[in-house]
């Protein structure tokens, strides 16, 4: 049985979306057991009328909610009865719980995961790695997208190694093509950090490094994994999501602008629905925090039930893939570099 704890509060559509997504996930996997944290009475009301195996779902009462504007340190110290911190505590103390899912505050989740759950051996800084679809029907991972803003070149090497193992073991991508996000594809492009990272990545035998990537090529299908600092990665992902959403809005507006366009749209309805599903980030789950000792998945703050279900599926697949020992083994040979990297900061 794979046990996963779900933080049911903190998102724009919580707790309804979290509960509905959890029930849907239970129907998909017969060996999945979920623990929902949050106000017990509210969660029970959300469960009313839903069919599920109650032997595989339990509720842990947590009356407090973490706000998006709260300081992570305050959350850890003062919000111990919150749904997020209760989930973190369960993840840390219960050996049979494999991972957790939350759509709440990113800062609080990262800080709590680092301080309470801990890192895998050899990992300097865990990093977020969301998945997006590509134009050729594949996927591309972006690592990091917000966990770490100030990094070193060696951090990017770790992201490349962890991200490659993630894509290969969880999504079946053989020898993932790794690119470094930069302002040009030429080797000499970028600031000193990017230049140093390029040299290190090129010499890292554990990955399939294919060079620099410009942001416009993210969804082309030419790359399987893009490594970057958390600031650049966050801007990259949100810009891409925003562009897709605005394109959908523009398409809808233009279709509604005339009777002729509406008639034409009827004949292309299936295609439009396919494109809408393709560009909807809700269908691709959340970001796994690679490098923590147990699985942590951060969903988008605006996640609806489908997105929560996908996040749970990610956590489930991560546990079955036994990623932790593979990451530790891959990073073991870099122990000396890790020590040197820590001393230099």
| CATH structural architecture of the largest domain | 3-Layer(aba) Sandwich
- Give the distance, in angstroms, between the N- and C-terminal Cα atoms: 42 Å
Fraction of helical residues: 40-55%
Strand content: 15-25%
Helical stretch count? Answer: 13
Main β-sheet, in a few words?
A: 7 strands, mixed
The CATH class assignment of the largest domain is Alpha Beta
Strand order of the largest sheet: 3-2-1-4-12-11-5
Helices, strands, pairings?
Elements: E1 2-7, H1 16-28, E2 32-38, H2 40-47, E3 57-61, H3 72-78, H4 83-93, E4 97-102, H5 106-117, E5 127-129, E6 131-133, E7 139-143, H6 153-170, E8 177-181, H7 192-202, E9 208-213, E10 225-227, H8 230-255, H9 259-267, H10 269-279, E11 287-290, E12 295-298, H11 305-321, H12 323-331, H13 335-344
Parallel strand pairs: 1-2, 1-4, 2-3, 4-12, 7-10, 8-9, 8-10
Antiparallel strand pairs: 5-11, 6-7, 11-12
Helix pairs in contact: 1-11, 3-5, 4-5, 6-7, 6-12
Task: Describe this entry's structure for a reader.
The chain is of the alpha/beta class and 345 residues long. It folds into 2 domains: 1-123 and 291-321, Isopropylmalate Dehydrogenase (3-Layer(aba) Sandwich), CATH 3.40.718; 124-288, Isopropylmalate Dehydrogenase (3-Layer(aba) Sandwich). 47% of the residues lie in helices and 17% in strands. The chain contains 13 helices and 12 strands. The chain has helices at residues 16-28, 40-47, 72-78, 83-93, 106-117, 153-170, 192-202, 230-255, 259-267, 269-279, 305-321, 323-331, 335-344, and strands at residues 2-7, 32-38, 57-61, 97-102, 127-129, 131-133, 139-143, 177-181, 208-213, 225-227, 287-290, 295-298. A 7-stranded mixed beta sheet has the order 3-2-1-4-12-11-5, sandwiched between helices. It has a 5-stranded mixed beta sheet with strand order 6-7-10-8-9, sandwiched between helices. Helix 1 (16-28) crosses helix 11, helix 4 runs parallel beside helix 5 and helix 6 crosses helix 7 (192-202). It is globular and about 60 Å long. The termini are far apart.
